[in-house]
Amino acid sequence: MANLLAISGGSWMVVNGSLTLGELTSFMMYLGLMIWPMLALAWMFNIVERG
């Protein structure tokens, strides 16, 4: 969901000229780097809760 929002909002900003394609690409890469630790943390909380 976050990727869809970032792509749609970012592409709108690229078309309007307030964001470059490189900035959008780097933001998407950083977003991907942030999503994985959040998912791993949620997975660990789930395991601890079961245990």
Automatic annotation (TrEMBL):
SUPFAM superfamilies: ABC transporter transmembrane region (SSF90123). PROSITE patterns: ABC_TM1F (PS50929). This is ABC transporter ATP-binding membrane protein. InterPro entries: ABC1_TM_dom, ABC1_TM_sf. Its main location: membrane. The keyword Iron does not apply. It is found in: Cell membrane. GO terms for cellular component: plasma membrane. The chain crosses the membrane at residues 27-48. It comes from the Bacteria. Its EC number is 3.6.3.-. The keyword tRNA-binding does not apply. Residues 1-50 form the ABC transmembrane type-1 domain. It is a multi-pass membrane protein.
